[in-house]
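Title: Prediction job returns without error message
Component: structure pipeline
Severity: low
Priority: P3
Assignee: unassigned

Description:
Job completed but the reporter wants confirmation the result is attached to the right record. Sequence as submitted:
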Amino acid sequence: MSTILIADDHPLFREALRGAVQRILPDATLREADSVDALYGLVEANPDADLLLMDLNMPGAHGFSALVHLRALHPQLPVVVVSAREEPAVMRRALDHGALGFIPKSADSETIGEAVGQVLDGERWAPPAAAAAPAMDRDEQAVAQRLRELTPQQFKVLQMLGEGRLNKQIAWDLGVSEATIKAHVTAVLRKLGVNNRTQAVLMAGRLAVDPDGVVLPPEEVE
């Protein structure tokens, strides 16, 4: 019996994915998450899952960074990106970052089922336009490699820096001391090879779907 994980913050689209999966795998066990934090817990609770269908745009997700982080932590889990962003370059970047498939949200139920079945059979699936798009550049590859070195807590701190949070706000949200967050930030800067939080957010922003739209964090006052 297959276990399929679905991560999307839109209930109606999760329902559509459930229907498409159940059409080809009526006995499959389906588990759902509506945010990146919930997704991490879902994957931890289902280490033997057969497939993850994940949206690029949901709370806690910043472009391809969540995909890169999950692939580093759980390389055995096949991932298919399901997104409303259907530009060939976005599809190609998702595949280059380790997704085994890319399903446009405009796809009908039959196409979704075909894609899921093909990936479960060990093959890749994406619209033909993805193969014609340019490959991911080396700078983005290098950033992805550095992000893979972050621990889950360090990655979460980096994501929250990218949301404009101050250290004290992050500490409050995570239920730890501000000193602990400062230590995490220091480790993040070291692993990314940058000197300050602004540079860290800019580097992580290379994995955004629209890198030019990255919001810089506020400066910390010591």
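Comment from assignee: result matches the submitted record. The CA atoms of residues 88 and 130 lie 5 Å apart.
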